Amino acid sequence: METIFISIAACKEEFLAQTIKSAIANAKNPELLYFGISNMVIDQEDFLSDPIFDIPNINYIDIKHKEPLGTGFGRMTSSLMVDRQHKYFLQVDAHNIFEKNWDETVKEYYSKLLKVCKKPIITTCPLMWADGPQKQVWLFDDSSKEIDPYDFNT
Protein backbone atom coordinates (compact mmCIF):
# COMPACT_ATOMS: atom_id res chain seq x y z
CA MET A 1 0.00 0.00 0.00
CA GLU A 2 1.26 3.51 -0.77
CA THR A 3 1.04 4.93 2.74
CA ILE A 4 2.89 8.06 3.82
CA PHE A 5 4.51 8.25 7.23
CA ILE A 6 4.73 11.86 8.40
CA SER A 7 7.41 12.56 10.99
CA ILE A 8 6.92 15.72 13.08
CA ALA A 9 9.16 17.16 15.78
CA ALA A 10 7.30 19.66 17.98
CA CYS A 11 8.29 21.83 20.92
CA LYS A 12 5.73 24.21 22.45
CA GLU A 13 4.01 24.19 19.06
CA GLU A 14 0.53 25.64 19.25
CA PHE A 15 -0.14 24.99 15.53
CA LEU A 16 0.65 21.26 15.69
CA ALA A 17 -3.03 20.24 15.50
CA GLN A 18 -3.54 22.66 12.60
CA THR A 19 -0.66 21.03 10.70
CA ILE A 20 -2.13 17.55 11.11
CA LYS A 21 -5.64 18.70 10.23
CA SER A 22 -4.31 20.49 7.17
CA ALA A 23 -2.42 17.41 5.98
CA ILE A 24 -5.51 15.22 6.40
CA ALA A 25 -8.05 17.70 5.00
CA ASN A 26 -5.97 18.48 1.91
CA ALA A 27 -4.80 14.94 1.08
CA LYS A 28 -6.48 13.18 -1.80
CA ASN A 29 -6.17 9.92 0.18
CA PRO A 30 -6.15 10.85 3.89
CA GLU A 31 -6.64 7.21 4.92
CA LEU A 32 -3.07 6.55 3.72
CA LEU A 33 -1.50 9.03 6.15
CA TYR A 34 0.26 7.95 9.35
CA PHE A 35 1.91 10.32 11.83
CA GLY A 36 4.76 9.97 14.29
CA ILE A 37 5.14 12.99 16.57
CA SER A 38 7.86 13.79 19.08
CA ASN A 39 6.28 16.39 21.35
CA MET A 40 8.63 18.21 23.71
CA VAL A 41 6.68 19.59 26.66
CA ILE A 42 8.39 22.55 28.31
CA ASP A 43 7.00 24.26 31.41
CA GLN A 44 4.10 21.77 31.41
CA GLU A 45 2.62 23.58 28.37
CA ASP A 46 1.20 20.91 26.07
CA PHE A 47 -0.68 21.28 22.79
CA LEU A 48 -2.06 17.75 22.41
CA SER A 49 -5.53 18.36 23.85
CA ASP A 50 -7.23 18.49 20.43
CA PRO A 51 -9.36 15.39 19.60
CA ILE A 52 -7.34 14.94 16.38
CA PHE A 53 -4.68 13.19 18.49
CA ASP A 54 -7.14 10.35 19.22
CA ILE A 55 -7.07 9.15 15.59
CA PRO A 56 -5.47 5.67 15.42
CA ASN A 57 -3.06 6.73 12.63
CA ILE A 58 -1.44 9.28 14.93
CA ASN A 59 1.25 8.14 17.35
CA TYR A 60 3.19 10.47 19.58
CA ILE A 61 5.50 10.57 22.52
CA ASP A 62 5.65 13.35 25.09
CA ILE A 63 9.13 14.31 26.19
CA LYS A 64 9.00 16.45 29.32
CA HIS A 65 12.09 18.46 30.09
CA LYS A 66 12.96 21.83 31.58
CA GLU A 67 14.30 23.11 28.25
CA PRO A 68 14.20 22.10 24.57
CA LEU A 69 16.48 19.19 23.69
CA GLY A 70 17.02 20.39 20.13
CA THR A 71 15.50 19.86 16.71
CA GLY A 72 17.77 16.92 15.95
CA PHE A 73 16.53 15.01 18.99
CA GLY A 74 12.89 15.66 18.08
CA ARG A 75 13.39 14.66 14.45
CA MET A 76 15.24 11.50 15.46
CA THR A 77 12.63 10.33 17.99
CA SER A 78 9.67 11.05 15.69
CA SER A 79 11.37 9.24 12.79
CA LEU A 80 11.94 6.15 14.97
CA MET A 81 8.17 5.58 15.03
CA VAL A 82 8.11 4.61 11.34
CA ASP A 83 7.85 0.96 10.39
CA ARG A 84 8.68 -0.68 7.09
CA GLN A 85 5.06 -0.99 5.95
CA HIS A 86 5.03 2.62 4.72
CA LYS A 87 6.22 3.33 1.20
CA TYR A 88 6.89 7.04 1.73
CA PHE A 89 8.48 9.02 4.54
CA LEU A 90 7.83 12.75 4.93
CA GLN A 91 9.49 14.94 7.54
CA VAL A 92 7.81 18.28 8.20
CA ASP A 93 7.85 21.03 10.77
CA ALA A 94 5.02 21.30 13.27
CA HIS A 95 3.56 24.43 11.68
CA ASN A 96 2.61 23.83 8.05
CA ILE A 97 -0.37 24.40 5.80
CA PHE A 98 -0.74 21.80 3.04
CA GLU A 99 -2.06 22.42 -0.47
CA LYS A 100 -4.92 20.42 -1.99
CA ASN A 101 -3.89 16.94 -3.16
CA TRP A 102 -0.38 17.41 -1.79
CA ASP A 103 0.01 13.67 -1.24
CA GLU A 104 -0.56 12.80 -4.89
CA THR A 105 1.73 15.62 -6.01
CA VAL A 106 4.61 14.34 -3.86
CA LYS A 107 4.11 10.78 -5.11
CA GLU A 108 4.07 12.01 -8.71
CA TYR A 109 7.33 13.93 -8.25
CA TYR A 110 8.92 10.94 -6.56
CA SER A 111 7.89 8.64 -9.41
CA LYS A 112 9.45 11.00 -11.95
CA LEU A 113 12.68 11.17 -9.95
CA LEU A 114 12.95 7.37 -9.87
CA LYS A 115 13.58 7.55 -13.61
CA VAL A 116 16.85 9.41 -13.02
CA CYS A 117 18.10 8.00 -9.67
CA LYS A 118 17.50 4.99 -7.43
CA LYS A 119 16.87 6.66 -4.06
CA PRO A 120 15.62 10.19 -4.59
CA ILE A 121 15.10 12.66 -1.78
CA ILE A 122 12.72 15.55 -2.34
CA THR A 123 13.36 18.68 -0.33
CA THR A 124 11.66 22.03 -0.40
CA CYS A 125 11.00 25.13 1.59
CA PRO A 126 7.22 25.53 2.02
CA LEU A 127 5.52 28.89 1.92
CA MET A 128 6.20 30.83 5.06
CA TRP A 129 3.36 32.19 7.11
CA ALA A 130 3.00 34.39 10.15
CA ASP A 131 0.50 34.39 12.97
CA GLY A 132 -0.97 37.48 14.59
CA PRO A 133 -2.14 38.26 18.13
CA GLN A 134 -5.63 36.81 17.46
CA LYS A 135 -4.12 33.71 15.80
CA GLN A 136 -4.54 35.14 12.31
CA VAL A 137 -2.42 33.49 9.66
CA TRP A 138 -1.03 35.27 6.62
CA LEU A 139 0.94 33.71 3.81
CA PHE A 140 4.10 35.75 3.29
CA ASP A 141 3.62 35.87 -0.47
CA ASP A 142 0.15 37.42 -0.07
CA SER A 143 -0.14 39.39 3.16
CA SER A 144 -3.54 40.71 2.09
CA LYS A 145 -5.09 37.23 2.35
CA GLU A 146 -5.78 36.14 5.91
CA ILE A 147 -6.18 32.39 6.38
CA ASP A 148 -8.00 30.74 9.23
CA PRO A 149 -5.53 28.09 10.48
CA TYR A 150 -8.49 25.81 11.21
CA ASP A 151 -10.03 26.18 7.73
CA PHE A 152 -7.86 24.45 5.19
CA ASN A 153 -9.01 25.83 1.86
CA THR A 154 -5.61 27.29 1.01
- Give the class from helix and strand content and strand pairing: alpha/beta
Write the element-wise H/E pattern from the N-terminal end onward.
Answer: EHEEHEHEEE
Query: pLDDT average, as an integer?
Result: 81
Q: How much strand content do the residues show?
A: 25-35%
Morphology call:
globular
Count of β-strands? 7
- Cα distance, first to last residue? 28 Å
Strand order of the largest sheet: 3-2-1-4
Helix fraction, binned, reads 10-25%
Rg value = 16 Å
Question: Helix count, per DSSP?
Answer: 3
List unreliable stretches of 5+ residues.
none
Biggest sheet details = 4 strands, parallel
Name a few traits of the molecule.
4-stranded parallel beta sheet; alpha/beta; 3 helices; 3-stranded antiparallel beta sheet; single chain; globular; 154 residues
What does this structure look like?
The protein contains three helices and seven strands; from the N terminus they run E-H-E-E-H-E-H-E-E-E. Strand 1, helix 1 and strand 2 form a beta-alpha-beta unit. 21% of the residues lie in helices and 27% in strands. The model has no long low-confidence stretch (mean pLDDT 81). With 154 residues, it is of the alpha/beta class. The chain has helices at residues 16-26, 71-79, 102-113, and strands at 4-11, 33-41, 58-64, 88-93, 129-131, 137-139, 142-147. The longest helix has 12 residues, at 102-113.
